[in-house]
Design goal:
The complex is a heterodimer. Chain A is an alpha/beta fold. Chain A contains nine helices and ten strands. In chain A, strands 6-2-1-7-8-10-9 form a seven-stranded mixed β-sheet. Chain A has a three-stranded antiparallel β-sheet with strand order 3-5-4. In chain A, helix 3 crosses helix 4. The relative contact order of chain A is 0.13. Chain B has one domain (about 5-185): Rossmann fold (3-Layer(aba) Sandwich), CATH 3.40.50.180. By secondary structure, chain B is of the alpha/beta class. Classes of the chains: A alpha/beta, B alpha/beta. Chain A: This is Protein-glutamate O-methyltransferase CheR.
């Protein structure tokens, strides 16, 4: 039996305000349509019927709050999602990065790490992994804990293998992991140059300089205002002529930063800093 | 119905020929917006927009980007592997959260969002399919004062989806594809 929870957009603002005031997480510039859906989903899971009940729980129960924040952020990801994107990385971007003695890549909003593992495999296959450092950040500590373990649910591996092959991979995909019970563990040698850390795109600052930033399907959860903030942050975090990769349906066209980038690949949404 | 701003069409198995037929039937200068949600494969290249446009020349079918402003006289197709939502300011908001009824895009997700954004200015049409997606969404459309149309299961290649919606909602209008087409033709302001 599904619980019929509902909150209005006005009540959503009250929840956002309460979370910011009491716990310091700022969802003020998150896109409302998806945030409202997520909040209602959390309410259904926890049995809260009204905004009043939810506010009561959030105010009085720290354990509930921790669960709420972890469930509120979208933690869905895939290995080699959009194979055409990874093909473009392999053929166009990585050969350019190869000219650097050391390569630094930032995965912003890495969730449980699937895209970072995909990148590490690509770098391995192009001979660059040993001189690359991958920084993977997310605001959700539970995601990072999972990502550090290198564990991917085995049930998705068939899809991921098909993605990998479509992306131009020619090795046996199974050579990259060990299957154990319900999970696949990505071999340690492909994870040795990965650094995981918490970073909140809504509030935190520049922490390093990168030749490539991947932030795919994260900006869709932000409104224009926050998207602009993050684009400035990326722009300031990119090395000269550095690359920026967004999701297949995320466009720089709607951002104030569009004049600072050239389009490398319009279909796979890879951009390059002009300066 | 007067003042219709949006027609949202959801379909799964067996719905593509019907969607193409409905698009052919749109009036020449329709003022409303059409949003199509189809269950389809992810991570493969797709020419669905071209297939749906069919023989009708001049129709604009686009898979929108996130934050795109929704306009009239346009057909939007929900992109593969995203849920499609609509913000209060009538811009597209894409979402990559868990599938609903094993589906992303999910028809329920878009219908519920359309119901909230357009209320009684919305028409939702649910077509052939083998999955209960869309039934909850139509409930939301009706509760906000919009109009819910279901393809007559007897005419559907896969009747499970329209039947699920009929079982769940008393206030749906059950029509054959031909009747839906002629209804859409009269829908212009």
């Amino acid at each position: 039996m599904t619980v019929h929870s509902h909150i209005s957009l006005e009540e959503l603002e009250e929840i956002v305000h309460l979370i910011r005031r009491q716990y310091g997480y700022d969802f003020g510039d998150y896109a409302r349509a998806s945030l409202q859906r997520r909040v209602i989903r959390c309410m259904q899971k926890s049995g809260c019927l009204t905004a009043y009940e939810l506010k009561y729980q959030l105010t009085n129960d720290r354990v509930f709050f921790a669960w709420f924040i972890e469930s509120l952020t979208v933690n869905v990801t895939e290995m080699f999602r959009d194979p055409s994107f990874y093909k473009e990385l392999r053929n166009t971007v990585l050969p350019k990065l190869a000219s650097y003695p050391t390569i630094k890549i930032w995965h912003a909003g890495c969730s449980t790490g699937e895209e970072v593992f995909s990148m590490a495999i690509l770098l391995h296959e192009t001979g660059l992994l040993n001189r690359t450092r991958l920084y993977a950040t997310d605001l959700n500590p539970a995601n990072l804990e999972r990502a550090r373990q290198g564990i991917v649910p085995l049930q998705h591996m068939k899809d991921y293998t098909s993605n990998y092959i479509q992306s131009g991979g020619s090795n046996a995909f199974s050579s990259y992991y060990t299957a154990r019970y319900e999970n696949a563990i990505i071999h340690k040698e492909y994870r040795k140059n990965l650094v995981f850390a918490t970073h909140n795109l809504a509030t935190d600052q520049v922490f390093n300089e990168f030749q490539l930033i991947c932030c795919r399907n994260v900006l869709i959860y932000f409104n224009r205002n926050l998207q602009n903030r993050v684009m400035t942050l990326f722009s300031n975090s990119l090395a000269p002529l550095g690359y920026l990769a967004l999701g297949m349906k995320e466009s720089l066209l709607f951002s104030d930063a569009r004049h600072q980038f050239d389009v490398v690949s319009p279909t796979t949404r890879i951009y390059r800093s002009k300066t | 119905m007067t003042g219709c701003k949006v027609v949202a069409i959801g379909g799964s198995a067996g719905s593509i020929p019907v969607v193409a037929e409905l698009l052919q039937a749109l009036p020449a200068n329709f003022q409303f917006t059409v949003i199509i949600i189809l269950h389809r494969l992810k991570n493969v290249s797709s020419s669905m927009d071209t297939i749906l446009a069919g023989k009708r020349s001049g129709i604009m079918i686009a898979e929108p980007d996130d934050k795109e402003v929704i306009e009239g006289n346009r057909v939007y197709l929900a992109p593969q592997n995203y849920h499609l939502l609509i913000e209060a300011d009538k811009t597209i908001s894409l979402d990559y959260s868990e599938p609903v009824h094993y589906s992303r895009p999910s028809i329920d997700v878009t219908f519920e969002s359309v119901a909230q954004a357009y209320a009684d200015k919305a028409v939702a049409v649910l077509l052939s399919g083998a999955n209960p997606d869309g039934a909850d969404g139509l409930l939301a459309i009706v509760s906000q004062g919009g109009m819910a149309i279901v393809q007559d299961p007897a005419t559907a290649e896969y009747p499970a989806m329209p039947q699920a919606a009929i079982d769940r909602n008393r206030d749906v209008v059950i029509l054959t594809p031909e009747t839906i087409a002629s209804f859409l033709h009269t829908l212009n302001d």
